[in-house]
Design the sequence.
């Protein structure tokens, strides 16, 4: 079974590749959005603002699917399915680390006034890695 600590998934997770996060809406439909992602040992983490749709979905139903694909080659990807646990503790530091990784800025520049960040750590239940092309 593939693990996110395997070399292929780690290559994708350590580079500034974007992720598609999919969560379950209140009506049972799927909501997907593009996010930044980080590797946290044998888990991964994503970050958002409290009150946005996908974090609200995760607070109600923690099931999540994350697909991280190589920039320039969407057929090189890792899909991670699991459950997410959210916390505001360390979320500001996490978004700043992501800003450094993705846009080479020490501090996240898109914060809105009064915005509270939330970090979700994902416990992987299934990992699928594909490399074509």
Sequence:
């Amino acid at each position: 079974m593939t693990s996110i600590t395997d070399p292929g998934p780690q290559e994708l997770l350590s580079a500034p590749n974007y992720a598609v996060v999919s969560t379950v809406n209140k009506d049972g439909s799927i909501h997907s959005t593009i996010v930044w992602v980080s590797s946290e040992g044998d888990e991964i983490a994503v970050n958002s603002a409290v009150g946005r749709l996908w974090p609200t979905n995760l607070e109600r139903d923690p099931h999540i699917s994350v697909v991280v694909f190589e920039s320039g080659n969407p057929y090189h990807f890792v899909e991670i399915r699991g459950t997410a646990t959210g916390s505001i503790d360390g979320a500001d530091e996490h978004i700043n680390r992501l800003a450094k990784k993705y846009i080479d800025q020490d501090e996240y520049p898109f914060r809105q006034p009064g915005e509270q960040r939330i970090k979700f750590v994902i416990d992987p239940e299934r990992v699928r890695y594909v490399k074509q092309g």
